[in-house]
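Review form for a predicted model. The reviewer records the input and the model, then writes brief findings.
Reviewer: anonymous (R2)
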Amino acid sequence: MVWTIERDEIQRNSNESYNDYFVRLFERKDQYQLTCQDIADLLNCENGENFGESVYRKRWVAFNAGRIYERQKQSSGIVTRILTISDTHVPFQLPKEVFSNYIGKIDILQINGDVVDCFSLSKFDRVYRISPMDEIIQARQYLIELIEYLYPKKVVINFGNHDQRFERYLSKNLDSDVLELMPKTSLELICEDGFHHYDKRNHTKVWYEPLKNIFNDIEVQYIDNWFCQIGQTIFCHPLAFNGQPMKTAEKAMYFFRNEGYEFSSLVMAHTHRIGQYSIGNTDLFEQGCCCDTSKMNYSDGKLVNSQREGFLFLGQDKDGKIIKYKQERLN
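Model under review:
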């Protein structure tokens, strides 16, 4: 290494963190007349490693790209980026690759109910049978893969009417004393409690860790309710349904207003439709569904509007109000 400037100028300062030193060397690389190999030698001296220059160069490129993206986000006024999906209805879920445009670009992944279909527990005709336990295991694996794929900072999950089929089935078939041992929805097992699968045929017992314990750097928050609020936006999945477009969302808006909630936007799952309009200063959205609707043909012959596959991306400002949104239609 041949130094063309004063050596003291390129040394780490006593009050300088390693990361700040790393950034300073690359930012002032031309000013200091350093090569990437020079920087690698300096950093290796600091951290005791023996990495080649390509390792540090790739780290810098990735760090700087992320920094530029964050600066652009802040300059646009967006503080919180939310991807909200609903109605995956495992085992009818769409592949995670549907959301590929949002990898690494969201702060919160909001899952607005009906994760599990509970197909075998429904009142509808059973075209085929899959056990509730198989659905729960599949749903847990799907959520793990989806979270790892998108890598949000936080995950917020509330339940939907199909998730509640779990409790309704148990209440009809179990004594009330035994029912007290059971959760309200399968999402409690998946997200909060974890569960064992007792395979009686093969005499095996498998433990499935809850989602909240799986990710060290991603917070998974399960809301034990049919709605949640993030900033000035309410995300909800009610039992009520109105056949007219957007009327379910409108009814929900009046419900929450009467209950004293303060919000400026509402996102409605459950309807399997896509739409948006405003009433006064409140924006209403129907976000669509994230399941294969060709396999979810519950309403065949009932002369109802077709289902619409889709999801919603929201950008909130520092006060939690939506300043940008994008509705993704998938069919």
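Findings: The chain has nine helices and 13 strands.
Further findings: Residues 53-75 form the longest helix (23 residues).
Recommendation: see findings above.
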